Amino acid sequence: MASIKDVGKFFIFVVGGLVAIIVGSFMIRGTMHMWDNPEDASEEKKD
Fold it and tell me: Sign of dihedral through CA atoms 20, 25, 28, 34?
């Protein structure tokens, strides 16, 4: 039974890590858009 619990903990650890990486990437992407200057964004849209 102990081995099953250990496998379950490892599986939760891996899934939690993947979720943290995905959420972190979205947060970083959001902050990168916040840091963009409105002038630069408008110039990129014109091109």
Answer: negative
> What whole-number distance in Å separates Cα of residue 45 and Cα of residue 47?
5
pLDDT for position 29: 84
13-38 burial, b for 16+ CB within 10 Å, e for fewer?
A: eeeeeeeeeeeeeeeeeeeeeeeeee
Q: How far apart are CA 38 and CA 33, in angstroms?
A: 10
Structure token digits, residue 46: 């014109």
d(CA 9, CA 17): 12
pTM, two decimal places: 0.55
